[in-house]
Design a protein that fits this description.
This protein has 16 helices and 14 strands. The protein is of the alpha/beta class.
Length: about 450
């Protein structure tokens, strides 16, 4: 199994004093089940797994009485495996197929005999089927495809190399030419292969891009089948139309998603649920325009103006169906790399915990990404060509005196360089993470004056 950062989250959860059930949400094929399965076998004496898709009868455990004693009696009788209190992890896989199991989590956590992890690919789109949410008894964790750092580790890049790159990032010093060129090649490869673990494993073991592409197309078809299975009524056709339209819409100059390209008479309110459905399913990443690049970004966002990225860059390349993979692997930037680069960066930003926003106005122009990093707003531009030091919109925005910004970064093919802005190679996006607060936000009201 590949090294995943989510493993650290599982360790943190297991060692927490007030442990709840951990609910891991993410798209299909991103490695949720494999990760939990391995974690359970390495960290618990007993590991029990129920998959509510492959084992339809498992849902019968939760029929009728949902008291902890009844459920555990049914569970132990069904799995016929040792389940030692305090030493057993129970995995409810594809829990969206058994809403009653999620309702029962409250009682199982209160009981405290075992630890519980839930995983699901369609929890966001089947929320209305859960009779009673286990509020206060469930910890939500969003998981994504393998990010760039996980990908390069899977390809054999050593920890000392990553530490060296991180040191260059922190100190804003140039990377050696040999390492820089190798990392660019790995970055091109990540664009094509993406971060779906099975696809990454196929590449690492065979290096056959044709097999990679075929497997990516299989996952895309699974996503389309999920749309048919989990969406309802007339939404099926609209969601499929939106999903299939993502690659071509990203290829347009401004990347903005336009409903008129799907249906001339389309209106946002008729399709709003479609965008939310794809986002909740984890297969698409909406990036919203903001009225001004200042905090709070969410309150400044305009949800009728947005870009829609694919959840995985490799799947985007496979969906383009233009055989662009071989040009990308050679570093041939004559093709329209801008949209693909933005998709990679959106995927990395999301995996690193950032909301996705951009800024576009007639007066100032467009900035690719605006991020809230701590209590500051960072400006990010993504450049695909050699003229990456030309960024008129960025320059205009930075002249607005009433706007305050944190970092201003241009990610490009060049090496690390400090000028009027910070220039970083594309692959260093993996080190751009949320800043921790400088001070603890502890506040206590003095009630001594009320002691009468």
């Amino acid at each position: 199994m590949f090294k995943r950062k989510a493993w650290n989250k599982l360790n943190e959860w297991k060692n927490s004093a007030d442990k709840k059930a951990l609910c891991i949400i993410g798209a299909r094929q991103i490695g949720k089940t494999t990760l939990v399965r391995q974690f359970g076998k390495e960290n618990y004496e007993n590991f029990v797994e129920l998959n509510f898709i492959s084992d339809k009868n498992a849902a019968r455990i939760f029929e009728g009485d949902l008291s902890a004693d009844t459920i555990i009696t049914n569970l132990t009788a069904y799995v016929r495996k040792p389940m030692t209190p305090s030493k057993t992890l129970v995995l409810f896989d594809e829990i969206q197929e058994c809403p009653e199991a999620r309702t029962a989590i409250k009682f199982l956590v209160e009981d405290g005999r075992f630890d519980y992890i839930e995983t699901g690919s369609m929890l966001g789109v089947r929320y209305n089927l859960v009779r009673s949410y286990p509020v206060g008894f469930e910890e939500i964790y969003y998981m994504y495809p393998m990010d760039l750092e996980e990908f390069i580790m899977a390809n054999g890049v050593q920890d000392k190399t990553i530490s060296y790159l991180k040191e260059c990032y922190d100190n804003m010093t140039a990377v050696s030419d040999a390492v820089h060129n190798t990392m660019l090649n790995l970055f091109y490869t990540y664009i094509v292969v993406g971060g779906m673990p099975d696809i990454v494993n196929t590449y690492v073991t065979t290096h056959d891009i044709n097999i990679v592409i075929e497997k990516q197309k299989e996952i895309l078809e699974q996503y389309r089948q999920d749309i048919s299975k989990y969406s309802s009524g007339s939404d099926k056709i609209k969601i499929k139309a939106v999903f299939d339209s993502v690659p071509s819409q990203l290829n347009d100059k401004n990347r903005r998603f336009l409903l008129s390209k799907i249906e001339k008479s389309a209106r946002t309110f008729r399709y709003e649920n479609c965008f939310e459905w794809l986002s909740d399913a984890g297969v698409a990443l909406p990036c919203y325009n903001v009225t001004e690049p200042q905090l709070p970004l969410e309150l400044n966002s305009k949800h009728n103006l947005f870009k829609l990225f694919m959840g995985d860059t490799g799947l985007l390349c496979a969906a383009c169906m233009e055989n662009i993979q071989f040009d990308l692997l050679k570093g041939d930037l004559d093709i329209n790399l801008g949209s693909i680069l933005e998709n990679v960066m959106a995927q990395e930003l999301k995996a690193n915990g950032f909301g996705l926003y951009y800024f576009d106005s007639k007066r100032y122009g467009e900035l690719d990404f605006i991020t809230q990093n701590g209590m500051k707003v960072d400006l990010i531009e993504i450049k695909s060509g050699n003229d990456y030091k030309k960024h008129n919109a960025l320059d205009r925005v930075r002249t607005v005196t009433e706007w305050n910004f944190g970092k201003t970064t241009v990610f490009c093919k060049g090496n690390v360089e400090i000028d009027d802005v910070d220039y970083l190679p594309w692959y260093m996006i993996m080190f751009y993470t949320q800043q921790k607060p400088e001070h603890e936000l502890i506040h206590e009201v003095d009630l001594s004056a009320l002691d009468i």
